[in-house]
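Hmm, how's this folded?
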Amino acid sequence: MEFTELINKRRSIRSFVDQRIADDLVQELCTQALKAPMASDRQNDRKLIPVADREVLQRMAEAVRKSWGLLLAETSEAVRDEFGDYAHNFYHFGNAPLVVFLAGRRPPEFLKAAVGEQLAERIHGNGASVLMAAQQLILAAENRGLGNCMMTGPLAAEDVLKQELGLNGRWILYGVIAMGYPNESR
């Protein structure tokens, strides 16, 4: 597919057919995505973590649903009414055949010591590098006929998600991409 056509055709897909994505295709897409530019060429400072285990994804989605329930319970009724209808978009990833979690390392201690924690977070570049890889993953998947939807709402349960993924405190989750063959009947 021509690049301009690919960009113009791409849209967020939230409903997928129940069809597994082949492991070799997942590996190919992640490899292509990680060819995206990386700040300071620190390739080991970002990870794309594909998860296809339905039980694990359902557990993660439930943790996100609970986190949003707790967050919304602490807000006004007006906010709950307006936002509550939207929050379900943050945990539908539990039904996707594949979810790729986007992670980057926190800035190194020497950088925090040199410029302070807040500036280190901004200039470190891992967030931008992870998101460039995400964009390449999204386009590579679209090019192979896979629909996808990038989400940040699930990060309300970041601690639980990181625990499920085996990530320690040195890692930050920047988003999740639900992926699968589009359900065209919806």
Notes: The mean pLDDT is 89. The longest strand covers residues 171-180. The beta strands are 46-51, 98-105, 147-151, 171-180. The chain is about 50% helix and 15% strand.
